[in-house]
Amino acid sequence: MMKPDLVIFDCDGVIVDSEGPTCEAIAANLSGYGMPLKPEGVHELFMGRTLHDIQASEEARDLNLPDNWVDEVYADMFEVLKGAPLSKGVIDLFDALENQGTAIAIASNGAIDKMKVTLGPSGLFDRLKDRMYSGHTHAPKPQAGMLIAAMEQAGARPEHTVMIDDSTAGAGAAQAAGTQFYGYSEHSPDSVLKPLGVDIIYSMAELKQKLVK
């Protein structure tokens, strides 16, 4: 592929290895409300969805959750996500992309405050905070709103934009926005992405080979 104008990254499970602790926090919380779940069950049922989506779907199944459930779960998450490691080589990849003139953005269904917890210690939050898009303030993936906003800000063309995500929601957003897509499966099984027939990447080093010219 040609040198991309813009690369848009999902956050959890792509930039930062946070899917495991996140699923553990949600599983523990929902189990306390009478829905026994293991972390892998959370991953299978809810991967790529917002907490508001999860709350609505579980209340539709008659699970009695408090009105402030999303805030409650985020408080649980923030405790377990402190110190979650970055994906190996991600800062090197970001540096290489920007050195060749490729813009970077983040599009996550998670809240900005959550990204501040996971990306703050490394300096990535301050570096990218003006190029972060959240499903709490934009239409969440699989809708295309965050990707379109990122392309407009960067002046990027859809055909020269790449989305990197570990979920079917991210793949759907890329398709809706008309961008290229790479599935990312360093921290989670590739069984979710394989049925989509997309190219799957397993490390930041491999992704660098694809994107840096």
TrEMBL record:
Catalytic activity: 2-phosphoglycolate + H2O = glycolate + phosphate
A single GO molecular function term of this UniProt record: phosphoglycolate phosphatase activity
GO cellular component, one term: cytosol
Pfam families cross-referenced by the UniProt entry: HAD_2 (PF13419)
UniProt pathway annotation: Organic acid metabolism; glycolate biosynthesis; glycolate from 2-phosphoglycolate: step 1/1
InterPro entries, sorted: HAD-like_hydrolase_sf, HAD-like_sf, HAD-SF_hydro_IA, HAD_2, HAD_sf, PGP-like_dom2
TM stretches of this protein: none
One biological process term in Gene Ontology: DNA repair
EC number: 3.1.3.18
Family per similarity comment: Belongs to the HAD-like hydrolase superfamily. CbbY/CbbZ/Gph/YieH family.
Protein name, per record: phosphoglycolate phosphatase
